[in-house]
Structures are given as C-alpha cells and as structure tokens.
Amino acid sequence: MKHLYFLMALIFMFDLSAQRREPLDITVDFESYDPPSTLVVPEHPVTQAKFPFIDVHSHHWGLGDMDISELIGTMDAMNMKIIVNLSGRGAERLMKMKNNIVKQGYENRVINFTNIELRSILEPDWAEETVKQLEFDVKQGDARGLKIYKSQGMTNTDSLGNRISINDPRIDPVWAKCGELGIPVLIHSADPKSFWNPHDSLNERWLELKLRPGRKRDANNPASWETIIAEQHDMFRKHPGTTFINAHMGWYPNNLQKLGELLDDIPNMYVEIGAVIAELGRQPRNAKKFFIKYQDRVMFGKDSYRPEEFPTYFRVLETDDEYFPYYKRYHAFWKMYGLDLSDEVLKKLYYQNALKVIPGLDASLFED
C-alpha cells in the first residue's frame, strides 16, 4: 500500500511539473479588460430625441467662416432645434459669427454666448470696459448669455501672478450687468473632485488620469476643489438678480442630495447635464426622483459636439433599459440604466427650461 501511495505521489508531482512547464497566460491589464456582457435584456437604442431639444452647452469656434448647413443637418437628425455656442469670444469675433449665421439664415437655430477677458483685471478701467463690451455684445452681437470657462478660479492669473477667484469683488459689476441685461451666465467651475484626489487604486477616475495626466491636480493646485466650488456658490448668493447656469450639474451629479440642497438654497441657480450622463445612468431610481423634484431647474447640455454620443443621453433619459454601455470607458467603466422620465419632465429638460432662461429663443420651433 505504501508503494501505491508513493507511485501516486510521483504521478501527481509529474503532472504539476508538466503544468509549470506550459503555464497558461492569464495576465490582463486593467486598461484592456473590458469583456462583452453575456446579459440578455431588452434593448431600445434611441437615435433621435423624443421631443425637440436645445443643447445649452456646445462649442463651435469656427462659426465665423463655416458652412453651417452641415451642422444643421446633424442637428436635424437628432431632433435638436437650437444649439447654444458658448464660445462666441466677444466683440469683432462675435460679430463675425453673428453675420455668418444671419447670412446663411440660421439665426433662430444657432445662438451665441459671449466671453470676457479676465487676465487684465488689474487695469484701472477693466470693469468699465468689460461692462461696455457686454452691452455691445448683447445689443449688436446678439449674444444671449455669458460663458465663464473653468480657467477662472484655476489657471487665470492677473499680471502679478495672483489667482483670480470666482468671487473676486472686482468682477461684481459684470455679474450685475448680466442681471440688468436679462442674460444668464453659464459657468464651469473646477472639475470632478476625483481629479484632486490621490491617483491610486481608490480613485474612480484612475484610468482617465492615466490617459489624460494633465487633468490631475494636487490638493491645493491652484486651490482645493472645495475652495473653488465654495467661491462659486458665494458669488451666486451675492447676485440674486442674475441667473446662473451651473455647468456639469456643478460637479455634484454623484451627490444629488447635496445638489438638491444647493438648488433649494440658491434659487437663481440652474444646472445642465453636460458630460455627466454617466453619473446619472448608474443611479436611475435616485436620479429619476431628482429630475422629478427639480424638473424646473435642469437643462439639457452635452459639451463636446459629437453626434454619435448623443444617443446615450437619449437612452438614459427616455428608456428603462438596463446595463448598456457608455461611450467613453475612461469616464465610466460601469454600465448605464435608463431613467424612463415622463413626457412632462422630458419637455422641461429638453427645451422648456431653456426657453424660460435664455432670452430671445424661437419658441415656435417647439410647438406641440
């Protein structure tokens, strides 16, 4: 019997040795691990929005020269009636855009916001001249709002190298003038909080920060996330007569309870959903409750104009589909779920709230 056990042990050891000589290659790095799901569920892809919509967050720097008919064609295919170009630049460049849009007959479809120059803020007449530019851009350049880029509060510095905070009191006349002119301010402040967190295995945006290392921020470079966001809210509260559209849901799409508290506290603040649909699509029940409760305060926005990406927005907002992919894995390695919003909420999100906030839009494009 002992000999039999010894022989079996030798055979087992021989088998293990053979396996070691021919190992299986099962090494897969994190970036490439993205297996197709075996889950079979009903699918309802949406290529065109259920209702006509306004994209309040887009960027088209070449509107002064381009053939706009191609843009209109892709808009029509998605049921987008109005696009808001936030990169109007101001003054002569804004006028060039306006004239080209009017010349081609699309002034009711393509709308511009203007921009201001902050880096010359130390000039003694900066506020006066900036306010004059705003008045010109609105009255002559047909600007329907002011867009503030994330560079304010982050990378913009004055001539002495000092960071220009969002709530810098020297800018107060600008916010007040926007309220006087009846135009909203769409403002992008900071970035996702994860960009300030350590770039380690506990960071949900690990892959994005590896692929886009320029987006990584040190804890206080140039200021903490909390500081920049608080400056923004302080500025909103100081100017209750001005309407603010907080881009990217104010970087609270992953904390809708907090965002709701801010909306309750700051009645002149609206939000738009540009570039944060992935956050909404992973919390469908919670997000649906939020959209129902704050249906009068949220607008549709996309940010980058890539027509092939809009269907994911439509599918998240309109269907009750489960476990479908997002279009940028480095933004979201998780799957999406539909919110199945009601027609009433969809109409407010897609166009009614924008018609209420942005002056001079052609409401006849949205008649039922």
Description of the molecule:
The chain has helices spanning 2-21, 68-78, 91-103, 126-139, 172-181, 206-211, 225-238, 256-265, 277-281, 284-293, 310-318, 343-357, and strands at 53-58, 80-85, 110-112, 146-148, 185-187, 244-246, 269-272, 298-299. By secondary structure, the protein is an alpha/beta fold. It has a single domain (46-366), classed as TIM Barrel (Alpha-Beta Barrel). The strands form 2 sheets. The chain has a 5-stranded parallel β-sheet. α4 packs parallel to α5.
How would the blueprint of this fold be written?
Layout: H1 2-21, E1 53-58, H2 68-78, E2 80-85, H3 91-103, E3 110-112, H4 126-139, E4 146-148, H5 172-181, E5 185-187, H6 206-211, H7 225-238, E6 244-246, H8 256-265, E7 269-272, H9 277-281, H10 284-293, E8 298-299, H11 310-318, H12 343-357
Parallel strand pairs: 1-2, 2-3, 4-5, 5-6, 6-7, 7-8
What's this model, at a glance?
With 368 residues, this protein is an alpha/beta fold.
Keyword list:
single chain, 368 residues, alpha/beta, TIM Barrel, five-stranded parallel β-sheet, three-stranded parallel β-sheet, 12 helices
